[in-house]
Amino acid sequence: MLAGLCCFTPLLPFVLTALGLTGVLSVVYSDAVLLPIMAGFLILTGYAIWRQKTPK
Prior knowledge:
- The chain is an all-alpha fold.
- The protein has four helices and no strands.
């Protein structure tokens, strides 16, 4: 699901323009939105790697 979302993201400007929602682009591609999402996924990835390495 995440890979599909990442593949769809470059098409987002074209889709939003076709729908007449170009004003949303400045909000979606804002660093205030993308950087916390990236940090969350990095933390989630680190936690998953840590869980795999700990013995059960």
